[in-house]
Amino acid sequence: MRIGYLHSIETLGAxxxxxxxxxxxxxxxxxxxxxxxxxxxxxxDKYALKFTPERLCKKLLRFKExxxxxxxxxxxxxxxxxxxxxxxxxxxxxKKEGIQTAVDTAYGLFSLSLPVTGCPxxxxxxxxxxxKDKIQDTRHxxxxxxxxxxxxxxxxxxxxxxxxxxxxxxxxxRLCGLVPDNKRNADPNGGGKAQPSGTNRLQNTLSFLSLxxxxxxxxxLRQVIVPGYTDSEEQVRKLKEIADTYGAEKVELLxxxxxxxxKWDALNIPYPLSGVEPPTEEIMRRLNAVLQx
Length: 293
Known about the structure:
The protein has 293 residues and is of the alpha/beta class. It has helices spanning 53-60, 64-67, 84-96, 128-136, 148-155, 169-175, 201-214, 233-246, 261-266, 281-292; strands at residues 4-13, 21-26, 49-51, 72-76, 100-105, 110-111, 144-145, 159-163, 218-225, 250-255.
């Protein structure tokens, strides 16, 4: 019996895909983003709600009447692709019920050429050492990899929402906590060898984007606007170029916020962006205007 691990479920969501949606926040994430508002999703099965695909589908069917023609179910996280096999079974059941599906992923720590490791289902759960090396701590050369599970998931996914952290490879890594930040503590757990700055996780993300485009998937791109990191017009212009190249339907710029900072405190982890204020309305207006050029 396959088990899925969820952090939480949001009903009647209106910001994670088209229409009214139920959003599944999956447990487990290989990133350590400086702006993360859900650090309690990092551990693959800690704090998790546990479901079989059948039981979760039955729960989601209660909300079907609210989805209408455009809504549906979005799996976010955490990083949903870590539980691709579980989501494939769930999405297959949802598609049989006429419910649209979406995944909200960052992808960049995956490789297109190797088998997936570390999918935290009960029967395939990695060892404690594998979790540390490959999933939980990106500062130790973590590498999550792709196999047929992710490809099968894409086959039953209507919309891919892809989070592109930054359009510069080195800054992409820094913002994700993969390399030390000279200005702020990007290594909140302390110690350990940082991910080499030359590792091009942005290229991994773009390779996945190319795959989604070749499969004719609907694509939305997202980026969090963090002052001092992603708030330049040049950076957003590059994001627009990426969207145009791969046929993305939509680009969303999300203003950085500090609503999840208290969770870092609760977990006794120093918040790396302490003192950074959310972008002003004027900054967001200016950057959104770039997307319209």
